[in-house]
Fold this sequence. Notes:
PH-domain like, 5 helices
Amino acid sequence: MGFAGLTLLLDWGSGGLTVGRADLWAVLGVLLFTVLRPPRVSAGDGWLAVRGLVRERRVCTDALVAVRQDGSIATRLVLRDAYGGSVAFDPRILVANPLLWHRLDAGARRSRERGTLRHGESTLRLLGERIDGETARDVLRASGLE
């Protein structure tokens, strides 16, 4: 919304602001907000959901089949379950929210025990190490020991 306000202010300052142009700036601001808005990730016992712009996708973490990390600069974690469900999201969401990671990890462990998780155990292990390291650094920083 800051984009729309700034462009309206600049256009008004240049003397070229009209009702049509104000509408255009407002529409562009809303469009930019909806495109850049990150997906909402939530989890419960045995499931993980990613809510995007249009719909919500859900996977059963107890029946994961594959976990992979795509991309080198803007990475995405892609989870697929045995029922055809698939979600993709930024793994930094898990780093920022260790409780989401705990739900995913618990479900992935059950998938391993049941034998459904065939691909991505190393991806989960590396992600877990990264999250544990970040959490430990945060605890040390908060306690003043770093």
